[in-house]
Amino acid sequence: MSAALAMPSAVTRFAPSPNGPLHLGHAWAVIVAHDRAQADGGTFLLRIEDIDGARSRPELAAAFRADLAWLGLSWHEVLPQSQRVAHYRQAADALRAAGLLYPCRCTRAEIAAAATTQGPDGPIYPGTCRQHPVAPGPDVAWRLDMAKATALAGPLCWVDERRGEQRATPEMFGDVVLWRKDAPASYHLAATVDDAADGVSVVTRGIDLFRASHVHRLLQALLGLPVPRWHHHAVLIGPDGRKLAKRRDAPGLAERRLAGEDGVALAAALRAGLFDTGICLADTIDLLP
Ligand code: GLU
User: Fold this and answer.
1) Which of 127, 158, 192 is the endpoint of a domain?
2) Which residues form the Glutamyl/glutaminyl-tRNA synthetase class Ib catalytic domain (predicted)?
3) How far is the CA of 17 from the centre of ligand 1 (A)?
4) Which residue from 30, 123, 203, 273 lies 20 to 30 Å from 263 (Cα-Cα)?
5) pLDDT beneath 70, residues of the chain
6) Last residue in a domain, options 192, 225, 257
């Protein structure tokens, strides 16, 4: 194969939110992302997703780095989300200028009461503030007009390395919030802008976030961003069949690290598919949270 046709090596990332300690499920996710980059001589990035100031605990980011080093991993750290708000604002401004965002003052309770359909993230927004526009202000959220956005973008596809070619169907989310009133950009906007800014070429994350990629693919089209590939990996579930969570299941990585457990041996066990008792991998999109 000529050099010009060779696939560039992958840039992957692990993007934890510092609102709770890392647990075994994160260890699995970070190893997948790390090893996917290593497999073709690529680059593995760590990005701290501290966009939600009220829920973020800065001391956890230091613990995350210690956990990753304990697992025997190395990484390159990129800017945390709290330092990228200006980028998100620019992206939101561009979408607003294109007439694709509208202000919304509805509360969760009002939405729950008026909604008639469920989407992947809860009730689909019933469109109240699209049909009856409200004045913009500092205390409004900004929603994407999904019908307008999908019409403008036209048909879109994306590729998951494990599940193949996908037709983007972001309309299943309805008019998602892209700019929040209680925090800056939403997860969808921030993660999409960041992955492009960081040069991520293979977005690795759990299968439970598979559907979010439909929205991210649409945002890439609207914002003229490069389109990566995706690698949605299986996630660890506990004996109750639900996605592993620190509060319900095993001790966190920091606890195990501080108790003197060998992190490199733990990473080797995970790579070999040996999980703690009662824990196994689930590869279905509809996981119980
Ligand atoms: N910050 C997100 C989380 O911790 C990461 C999602 C992603 O990888 O896109 O769930």
Assistant:
1) 192
2) 11-262
3) 7
4) 203
5) 1-6, 246-249, 288-289
6) 192
